User: What shape does this take?
Amino acid sequence: MLRETPFYVESGGQISDRGEIQGEGWRVDVDEVRRVDGRIAALGKATGKVESGRARATVPRDRRRDTERNHTATHLLHAALRKVLGEHVHQQGSLVAPDRLRFDFSHHGPLTPQQLNEVETLVNRGILDGVQLTIEQKPQAEAKAAGAMSLFTEKYGDIVRVVSIPGISMELCGGTHVRNTSEIGVFKIVSETGIAAGVRRIEAVTGRAALDYYRAHERQLQEIEHLVRAPSGQVVRRVQTLVEERRALEKRLEDAMRTGGGGAIKSLVDQGSIVNGVKVVAANVIAPDLPALQAMGDALREQMESGVGVLAASFENGKNTMLAVVSDDLRDRGVRADTIMRELAAAAG
Assistant: This one.
């Protein structure tokens, strides 16, 4: 334990600090901080013999700054959600870590893309406005009378710490924060999900983590541009063209299969054999996907007039499958395609 400590102990959603304590001939790499009998205790791996005396405790600057960005961002996010969705929104929980933030709030359903964009825009506007935070100690009653938000699950003393972003937010909070909203840099929502009835969750990143997020997506976009051979800035148009071309090819393939496949299906029928007086066609075929294979099966059934067909194919995604078809007259006599497939599967083991 230290007489004075820079380490923050987990509270209000913000995780505990990590860091280092150095003394005369010894060091402790702090990886956990707890409150023990009302005092903050730092736990970690010790090097050398730890003794009482003067010591220097430090928290990595970058880690602390990243945590501050995320914590202040949760306050901006809370305010933005209430402005976009309504004052029924209240914080239901949170996680503030150096690499990300998570914010749980009361709301009846998923946010629309437009609402998410509006919330994200409001948070980033608060960041770009460069608002100076004020942190004060006030009597709890006075703070709440002034409009300070609080967590229903938290217990507060008579004197509370009030973190204000003037014109935007006022909350009771004991966590670490930036001095000015501009220090957050940028805010990006990563996901929005439901976690319980009437409770939604937003996960987001700020600062350096947000920059990493944008860079990762930029690399993915550049890779897609390379794969589809699209000039910079035209990848969406190129992908739309490829999708339309694929649909047209699938339609042509389906039409071709239904009309006999240019002789391919007729050739399969001609190569079939007679088993117990029934025409049987079994073949490996080339098909890009299941719809194409089904179209071939329909064409085969029509061309056989009377018989059983089994087609096997390996799709472009690497999956293998078989399809059985039965002509109408045999189906009326009790021959079923699903029964054939089960018997084939049993025989294959």
DSSP finds nine helices and 15 strands in the chain. The two ends are 66 Å apart (CA to CA). The CA atoms of residues 5 and 284 lie 73 Å apart.
